[in-house]
Predict the structure.
Amino acid sequence: MRTVIQRVKSAKVEVNNKEVAKIKDGLLLLLGIGAKDTSKDVDKLVDKVLNLRIFEDTAEKMNLSLKNIKGEILVVPQFTLYANTDSGRRPSFEKAKNPKEAKALFEEFLGKLKQQGFSPQTGIFGEHMVISLENDGPVTIILDTE
């Protein structure tokens, strides 16, 4: 699994000009699911995301996690994180998991966040989405479970 994590002051997702998800202070995750990903990858990534210390403490040091600040989380499915651009000019996506299996792991990821006490907001799997955000820092981190 791959994710681009952005620390945000706010973020929202629109589908067909309608707002479908919105958060304030927390994390926006663009989540890609690879062909070889399993539930183990879900567990590993959930743990890493929730405990990653990228929020500032009173000394302005990045010592706090999403759990510590009781922040919000917005998860957007993004298969294009598995784009292969090695040859030609059009990306191929053979390294991405097929949509049916990817959606199941995406839902499992959301379920694990809920088990940890979070109420994740989400984009809509398989839809064209418009994402707006106010990046905080900016702080942008890329994680990959491979």
Remarks:
- The first strand starts at residue 2 and ends at 15.
- The mean pLDDT is 97.
- Residues 42 and 109 are 6 Å apart (CA to CA).
- DSSP finds three helices and seven strands in the chain.
